[in-house]
Protein: WD40 repeat-like protein
Organism: Ascodesmis nigricans
Amino acid sequence: MLLPGRPLPVPQALCTGEWNRKRIIAYISNTSLVILTGVNKLLQTIYHDQQLTAIALHEASGKLAVATGNLVHVYTPTARGNGYINWTLQTTITLPPTETGVTTLSWGNTDELMVGGDDLTLWSTESYEARLLWRQDLPNPAKLVLFSPDFSLAVSIAHNDRLVKVWRRVSIGSGDIQFDFTYLPHPRAVNNLHWRHAAHPEETADNVLYTFAQDQVARVWAPTYPHDAHLLQLWTVVDLKESSPLRPELDLRYAYVMDSRALGMAAECAVGRAGDGEKEQAALQRLVEVANRAPEVMIGFDAEGKMSAWGLENVGCKSRRTANVFSIVRDEPSGIRAFRRGCEAGIQFSGFVSGASLVILAHFLDGRIHWLEARVDRMLDPGPTARRFTERAVWTGHSGTIKRMIRTADGRILLTGTNDNELYIWSVENRPDGQSLRARCLLKSPERVRRTAIIESGKFIVTLHEDHIALWDARGRSAFILQRLPFKSKARMLCLILLPESVGKQTKYHVAAVDKRMCGIAWSICPPNPTSSRSNGEMGYPRNQISPYIKQIANFVLPGAEHEDILAMFPVEPVGWNAVLSDNLDVFSREVATTVCASGLLISWTVKVYEETEEVKWLETSRVETGIPNPSYAKSSSIRKIALVDEARSELTIWDSTAGILEFQQKFKEKDIVKDLDWTSTPRSQSVLAVGFPHRVVLMSQLRYDYLTATPAWGPFREINIGRITPHPIGDSTWLHDGGLVIGSGNQLFVYPRKIEEVDEVLDSLHLTQHQTKLDDIFHIVSELNGPLPVYHPQFIQQAILAGKYSLVETIAVKLYKELRSYHEEVGLDMYLNIPLDEFFKDEHVASERERQRQISYFDAYETNDDFSTFDETLASKLCEYLQKIAVPHLTGPEQIRLTGIIESMSEVHKHRRSLDENGSQYLLFFRQYTLHRNVPLEMTFREFAWAYHSNSQDILVDLVTRNSQGRILWPQARESGMFVWLADTESLRRQMEVVARNHYTRTDEKDPVECSLYYLALRKKKVLTGLWRVASWHREHASTLKFLSNNFDEPRWRTAALKNAYALLAKHRYEYAAAFFLLADSLSDAINVCYHHMNDLQLAIAIARVYEGDGGPTLHTFLTTKVLPRAAEKGDRWLATWSYWLLKRRDMAVRALLSPLDTLVESGASSPRRDLTARFFLLDDPALTIFYRTIREKTLQTLKGAEKISPDVEFNVVLHTARLYDRMGCDLLALSLVKNWHFMPQERTVKRKSLIEDDGLGRRRRRSSAQVSDDGHVAEGEWKMPKGLVKPPVAVFEEPDILSWAF
């Protein structure tokens, strides 16, 4: 739907014609030229510096001429493919400046243009330089001038002119052009003129002129003698009042002339589309009878919307027949309500035929254009027909530039405003072709309007001004003021907020305004009864009302006003809720407003008005520290999402105010300045954000959280670009109640419905389908991007694995294989694969030890699995084959590839199921996925390293990682696997470092010892390195390095020399070699600082420190406490923090770091202004943290101490927050399972006295595990310890025995 702007109240504000087989409609609105090709299809808008006064279209060339002041601009069309046409300026005609200026335009033959004002001038526009052909002064400024269809005559009238001047061209050619003129007298002033068009384009017909005067009589002028065709005589008259003689009080009547050519075309189409009904056939027969007479049809309308139609046949001297005027329809309802409003200023009609329908463009000179459409056979049916015309659109709106929009809570009433204090109230209407806006009331304020509020569904408007507040009655076409009430404030008010009311209190409303000092004023509004009559006056009170409409009830100060001033205060966008409040004032109440401080602090507020004491109490509901200084714009929604734009308007962040986390961050290009933000939501409370730029609006949807692939939590799904059809930047936008979006640009309003009708590249890139049908409804699109996932979705399976539900995952794989084996796309797949819901809620953590860790005998490998009832390598292989052939419903291509990788990884883990524990299996599963999809931007994190660190199968994991690197593991592969982070055994750590050193040395044929220097020196094997240099005689640094290494670096002088070499290498950016020389100088701290700061390799720094001096070394301790832990706090990385604390033997802190805020556990040191922004990112609240906490909280006595320091309230909130995260991820079944199966540690449990028999939290008694370790690291009672002096042998991966080796 389109509202191109308020048309100017001038006779030539609208024109239409057909050019290049395309309908062109153009009109002028203030300074803009609006060009359309359909009821809701805008081609182009061209803005000018001054207000336009007239427009004319040349059908032969498609040129458009517009007048402004003493200038005439001529635009020529250019086709650019795909039906797109663009008009560009060809030339500008400059006339001598006059007080009147140019008032009328008319195109003549061969690009000739008649320009009327204080005089008439004829110009040639064939070239880029316009040329004057003729000029004639006029006694009165011209109101309207029109060339005849054959361009031999022209007619003109002035304002209130009874004499129509007929100009006859007496010379044709490029020489001297002359016109003479005659008069056509009328008894009253002439309002409008119309030339008849020939029945066929190539036909030469008489020039017939229709004139419409203020006496409500239409006159027909035509030539009488064939040899004097230029002399027009009165041919006949049509008295428009005759159609309604019983209602003489209807003074205003309007008429439109339909040419015989248009009637014939419409009749032909009507015959081809007619139905078989008896009534329809009768109407068609009547139309055919009328069309066969080839008349012009004059259609008259009165002020009640009644219509009459007359046929005029044989007009003109060439017909050689008797002229006749006959009645077709008499005083029948037209179905048009627009005429009932009347228009004393007059109406100008234009029209054309579209198929079997007649389209009439009725330009009401009070500022609106109605698109009226009617089937010709029904329109001219003399029988009773209730609705002959259909109103397709009303083009109206503002004259100035739209700067702001507000809407009611339900989105059914819209208010738009300009800088000229012109406000329009619109109501939202649902039509078959989508939502539309109907102008209800115009409000013009003499003072500047700063803020507005809508009450009583737009019947009344509250405006906030500099020093007073006002109430307006907007129940009519023009609003008038009811009351003004002054107020005093020490600072400018930032907002005007309509406070939500409790149910049942609809006779009184409350509004509040707040200034930057967080001081505010509240008023009560008691509007008149909406059903009472309006009284046009400044008086404000009805006779039976003593109290005023507006009353100031309270002055208040928002809590926390002693802190910094606020930059802005925004009302909360009402998304999917009515403006009501509960009876209680608490944090669960609906949020009303959000304040923005200069430091980036966002505070959301709720409010309650106490009628008895006339108090207004505010309560802070949430507080978000964004760390973004001086934000320029913010918008919050009632489902507690806040969008924030930085000071430069180039960066957008989206926050969840409930959890205080950052969900999205994007930096736009310099030209993409964010100008507007608007919220809405689906019926399922899934958020949608409209981000407005100067010439486009991007619709963004919330997406499912994905903690494994780290995809954004928000993404665009539609882009609306208006830059092609208008050069004016977007002023504001807002959502309607049913998902429609209104965009204001210049003085135009664009209404986009929920259903996407045009091609959208952003939407196409998502490849969203449902039942093989492309999704085109924005609510359906957002629901598809959110909501519960099918249980076979890769994200659900991965999260189930992290939650320890291995049996469930294998069940899902088996069921998916069976479903795909007989899959048909018309049947689809059940989202739960017909798995009983109880299977999803089983707590595998409390399963029996025998069931969780059941060992399979050697002979189990040879059992057949013909029915594929259990998961094994064969089933995994067949399932992967199906996944490569079948397009699985609700999975995109990349998601299906991920699922295939997960199944392959599960198959790999299944091979080693007897050798790996749960923690090792989880690590191996994700490591295999990483190696299968190296091209995906996915990397191993400390989450996977933490699982492996707590695994008892580390030697097997090392062997599998080494095999994955073809037995030649280098440092990049070691860093990918994280083995030097998660290996707990010091001897294994040193062995792997030696393997890495040896592989680096033998990596190339030259065997460069520089490549392995850092690793050998970390192992303190200088002699080995010296031997390698001794055989590297080819190296250019051979002699000097060998000589240097032969020194005794226990002596201070040689350590100093090594340090000098290290610094020299730093200057040359040879960082790894520099770290090696620092180790040579026994300066471990410098070496790891080089790795950490210069090489940006945290793992390398940790590996060097652990290998060089062991896990208990002071340098490693200092590095972890001063570098790693502050980094974890700064980044919000809980996985890194818990690993660091565990390595520091602070296992109580390792447990607390999983749930407690990190900034309360560790000092992050000097922080940058953006530190908090990174630390609040949603990806840091990994649900696996909660699962990991449950895994390790009872592992040792020290972890039990840490768990006891976490209050039950904190643990309860963390569990609920994790459940919300699961729900946002689409894993609602996992959320239910977590809440159902979680058991809290009893508060009375102590660590010092721990019984061997303990409660599992579910009312069951079990024996305490013997795997708990005491605080100092000693093995607790019941655990076997290896005798001193013995080395733990490496564990090899179990391999199935060859059947041929068995001796039967």
In short: DSSP finds 32 helices and 60 strands in the chain. The chain has a mean pLDDT of 84. The first helix runs from residue 260 to 273.
